[in-house]
Predict the structure.
Amino acid sequence: MKSLLLIGGGGHCHSCIDVVEATEIYQIRGVIQPKGSSNLVLDYPVIGYDDDLPQLLETSKTALITVGQIKTSATRVRLFRLLKQLGAELPVIISPKAYCSKHSVIGDGSIIMHGATVNAGTQIGNNCIVNSQALVEHDVEIGDHCHISTGALVNGNVTIGKGSFVGSGTVIKEGIKVGENVIIGAGQLVLQNLPDGTLVKHGE
């Protein structure tokens, strides 16, 4: 199995570990954390800090960003750019418990998690999260650095701009255009287009 570094050791990392183990494709070498973090993430050691990445990538070229994303994609974007700069390989990780159409396209460093569905004609950008039980229907376009959260329903022909977050249980009507850096809170029903930078939450 190919050696894999995990970048970030919080709660999202725990879920990613479960997906990576289930694929039986990669052997997790260890976790990279900010300085001062714990020495163990589930059963895996913290083997270095952000400053150690150039040296670690000399022996393990493959890495996955396992930092979560809710309010902003900034940390994931920064890490993605850094890893690309350092020549890292950023694989697509697809849970064997997900369905991902062979007629879809998924960008570097994206992860499709347990129970998710990605249907035909869909394009998902780099460094995205399609989380557990999310549905991404046919002919959807999702930009780089997006997070489609647990149980979200993204209907056909929807477009989502880069850096956006779709909260748990949200439903986006077919054909809707969501701009860049939009945050949609949990449980929303999106029936109209959303311009760049929109925040959608309960009571609005």
